[in-house]
Amino acid sequence: MSILKLLNVESAYGPIRAIRGVSLAVEKGRIGTVLGANGAGKSTILKTISGIIDPRKGSIEFAGEDITARDPADIVRRGLSHVPEGREVFPLLSVRDNLLMGAYTRTDRDAAARDMEMVYGYFPILRERSHQEAGLLSGGQQQMLSISRALMAAPQMILLDEPSLGLSPRLTREIFEIVVRINRERGTTLLVVEQNAHMALNVADYGYVLENGRIVMEDTCERLREKDDIKEFYLGMKEAGARGERRWKRKKTWR
Fold first, then answer.
1. What is the pLDDT of residues 199-235, one digit of tens each?
2. Residues 6+ apart with CB under 8 A from 78
3. Rounded-to-integer distance, Cα 212 and Cα 14, Å
4. Domain residues for 68?
5. Which has fewest Cβ within 10 Å: 20, 82, 114, 151?
6. Who's near 30: CB < 8 A, 6+ residues apart?
7. How far apart are CA 218 and CA 59, in angstroms?
8. Are residues 135 and 162 in the same domain?
């Protein structure tokens, strides 16, 4: 059963159409991903879903309800959180206060307190830095905080925009390990926009390829990894390098 459905969605920045007739769906409890070059419209899809941008055409359905062009705060209340590209933490607020901002739509403070302990369990460094200004955290720690802030809204689904941007391979791996844990342990659905196609196709279940604002390919991630175009343009492999990809896949023991 799909928890999120987009049907023929079109969004624009002034006269420039950023996404054109985009239709996609994410199954409940699964991880979906959108791949594409810079400027393809990936982030625009997430902003349109979360209400930051109003679509010019099409419809968006979440958990069986039409959320097309609804207010972002209302969308959060319905159980859909957005982790934006670039983290966008509140730099002058403490780590703890940033987390509390994530829970601003909730009325059960005891449950919110339990969820704060939950996110500290996922990211122990945030407990250590709980009274530190968020702007003084490293890039990786700010990404952890941004994901944790989204979790504090107790979402059914998280939109995750370029989580590896600017991070080292080690931190990227660590972030995605937690993303997989959140999905498996909490049943949280995720839609991930990610420049690291290797990582995205490894953790996600189903993927879409976006070019010039249009979906040009979709399939299970297992099948996408085997397509020659994906290997060459997104995984950096020619057909002659397929044996190398198979070796890479055998090393992935944490998925």
1. 999 999 999 999 999 999 999 999 999 998 898 888 7
2. 62, 63, 65, 67
3. 16
4. 2-79+156-250
5. 114
6. 183, 189, 205, 206
7. 20
8. no
